[in-house]
Amino acid sequence: MDLVPLKLVTIVAESVLEKKLVEEVKRLGAKGYTVVPARGEGSRGMRSIDWEGQNIRLETIVPEEVALRILARLQEAYFPHYAVIAYVENVWVVRGEKYV
């Protein structure tokens, strides 16, 4: 079995940003993504009321250069204004041609 090294980019953000983040990730080179509801507690504490909306967890597997473009765009346009976190992990995937 051939495994291909790629990057898993995970973005946790306010659900109101889902459509914009999906558009950005695709525009920056991602071939696909997964979005699931997310909840938890961070430096801003735990959300206590539902009307603020839920958080989402957006994941995409991409080549390193695409991961860096996504992180740069988040830093430029989202981190200063929204409750958004992002991190990158090294992953090995089968059928690597689906992601590049």
Automatic annotation (TrEMBL):
Signal peptide: none
GO molecular function: enzyme regulator activity
Classification via InterPro entries: N-reg_PII, N-reg_PII-like_a/b, N-reg_PII/ATP_PRibTrfase_C
GO biological process entries: regulation of nitrogen utilization
Pfam families, per database record: P-II (PF00543)
Domain of life according to the entry: Bacteria
The protein, known as: Transcriptional regulator
Species for this entry: Thermus thermamylovorans
Upper taxonomic lineage: Bacteria, Thermotogati, Deinococcota, Deinococci, Thermales
